[in-house]
Amino acid sequence: MRVFRKILKWLGLTFAVVLVLGGAFIAHSWYFKPVNINIFFARSFLQAALESPEMLSSIHVLEQFGIKGHNAKLDDASMAAGDRMFEHLKKSRATLISYEDEDLSEDDRMSKRVAKSLMDMLLEAEKFRFHNYPVNQLFGVQNGFPSFMESTHQVHNVRDADDYVSRLSQVGRKFGQVLEGLRHREQLGILPPQFVVTKVLEEMRAFVATPVEEGILMLALTDKMKAAGLPRDEQQRIAMEARQQIEQTVYPAYGALIAYFETLDDKVSENFGVWALPDGDELYRLAVKLFTTTDYTPDYLHEYGLAEVARIQAEILTILEAEGWDVSRGFFASISELAEDPRFYYSDSSEGRDQILADYKAILDEISQGLDPYFDVIPDIGMDVKRIPEFKEKTAPGAYYQPPAMDGSRPGVFFANLYDIKATPRYSMRTLAYHEGIPGHHFQLAIQQQQKNLPMFRRLIPAIAYSEGWALYAEKLAWELGFQDDPYDNIGRLQGELFRAVRLVVDTGIHYKRWSREQAIEYMINNTGITESDVVAEIERYFVMPGQALAYKVGMTRIEELRDLAQTELGADFNIREFHNVVLTNGAVPLDILEDLVRQYITRAKQGQT
Fold first, then answer.
1. Cα 597 from Cα 607, distance rounded (Å)
2. Which residues, other chains included, contact 18 with Cβ-Cβ below 8 Å and sequence gap of 6+?
3. pLDDT at 197
4. Rounded CA gap, 272 and 115, in Å?
5. pTM across the whole model
6. Contact 320/491 with Cβ under 8 angstroms?
7. With 50 as the cut, is the pLDDT of residue 19 above it?
8. What is the percent of the chain where pLDDT is above 70?
């Protein structure tokens, strides 16, 4: 209750109202139906957030109120916690729909619709809550915990450093809860593909084989304490305690997971899509629906992907021919020849990798200075470019973006994978920077966070088709605005779009048409020109995240269609800055809701109300 009282203002309820209505009102709002839907949104978000101390550390907003206890804790990963989450979700949905639309403002009706859509999707997926692989080659506690401690847990004083050690002491509990869930999945007949077991074992064995002093957990803590200027004697005390926890708690927790995966190694031998799981076909159809927020069928997406692959490959060959390349042998031979040209690569050295990061920053600085004619809302906070931590880069994706802390204490970060230098040709760098950074994910996520007029849940929730669709749209937008005037940079852009079109084919191929891992790898290599190391990582990603890869191309296509609609309807009155405002300032939403928002904008623009 004390926490609720402190945070209500931050969530959108004015302090004056809190003072007037007093404790009885707060108690009623916490335990019963709030009288106002925005109080309901605030309460629901807060109740969910208090169940995840790791999320609270990530968004980093409670600290300004002197609330820091969560920074000493790790999430509850037990099956019982999942049960409580679904039970709470059902109760919250019942409360939500009890608010009558006619009693709500237009903005509140939209928030209700977004919340209901999110709740419905989660509840529809409850049947399949165990149909996943929570420890895999991409994510899970085995690499998520060290990454969280290195990139998210902040150390500004002795208490923060002690909290770091406290979190180390809880690893055994959390890993044990994850292990409980893995054993339950095994009883249900839900086992991961063989390559998952092999790669997770390789990753975890390498982690525990690293001397404590050289591991990321110890190095991150000592770097953070030094940067914070903690007293030397405190640094020594805390380092000793951390070392003890890593040796006596963390490494044994990894040992228990390793032992379990060694038993799995004798039980799995195939690499099948989710069709091989109980009710797997139904699961995949639902995954397609939830990730794309459309009613597209796997058949439709497979055929659309094939058509887009042919179209984009033809555009690339046209550019190569215009640049003097012999394209008579077809796409694969032509793109492979381009990929082998040494002029497009950096040196395979620490200096070369440092230069890649510096050039990414220069690319982002350049486009940041030229976007004013196209955006009048920009992020309040900046972003940085960093290398993906080396301990996990071998199986990590080519890049990813980490949103900023909401209190401004941590910028957004574009993480680039520099493991394989051949996976970063110069002509692909602009496209990747625009996608992960500006005006892609950094614009979308940072602007979403800063919309103080929206309920907090709308400033934080994801919608994959929307967010990844925007990032892919941003790649093409940068080209339209003249930031990729070099023909080879345009090839890099088209390769990025081709990559997402191929995803439609291979994701549906693996999980719907029952392609083998090798068949999917061969198709992607032959039709993208991407390095084999990247292709293998991508295909194996699709095995453990069925349907997610479909969202990119579907989302981009829909945003382009909506812009075309606005341009057609408004003609000379179309304003691209206003269109981008509509897309970016309403939070992440399903594509059908985004369409309604754009149509509302068109109506207002015709009436001269924008």
1. 15
2. 5, 8, 9, 25, 26
3. 97
4. 35
5. 0.86
6. yes
7. no
8. 94
End-to-end, the C-alpha distance of the chain in Å comes to 42
Spatial separation of the C-alpha atoms in residues 36 and 289, rounded to whole Å? 32
Could you give the dihedral angle defined by the CA atoms of residues 362, 364, 365 and 366, in that order, rounded to the nearest 10 degrees? 90
pLDDT number for residue 8: 40
**How many CB atoms are closer than 10 A to CB 453?**
9
Half-sphere exposure of 8 (CA within 13 A, CB side): 25
Instruction: Give the pair of three-digit tokens for residue 90.
Output: 């059902």
254 touches 142 (CB < 8 A) = yes
Three-class SS string for 502-563?
HHHHHHHHHHCCCCCHHHHHHHHHHHHCCCHHHHHHHHHHHHHCCCHHHHHHHHHHHHHHHH
Within 266-297, residue ranges assigned H as helices are 280-292
Among all chains, which residue has been given the structure tokens 């709470």? 88
Cα–Cα nearest to 269, from 179, 198, 201: 198
Residue 127 DSSP label: G
Place of tokens 């058509």: 307
**503, 545 in Cβ contact below 8 A?**
no
What does DSSP say about strands 412-416 and 383-387: parallel, antiparallel, or unpaired?
parallel
| Burial (CB count within 10 angstroms: exposed 0-12, middle 13-18, buried 19+), residue 245 | buried
Exposed/middle/buried for 88, CB within 10 Å: 0-12, 13-18, 19+?
middle
376-408: pLDDT as tens digits: 999 999 999 999 988 778 767 789 999 998 888
The pLDDT-based confidence of 12 (bands split at 50, 70, 90) is: very low
Residue 197 Cα distances to 133, 137, 210, 258, angstroms:
10, 8, 20, 10
List of E strands, 252-398: 383-387
> Do 253 and 171 touch, CB atoms closer than 8 A?
yes
| Tokens coding 526 | 């032959």
Cα–Cα distance, 507 to 499 (Å, whole number)? 12
| 466: pLDDT strictly greater than 60 | yes
| Confidence at 32, pLDDT banded by 50, 70, 90 | low
* Contact call for residues 161 and 230 (beta carbons, < 8 A): yes
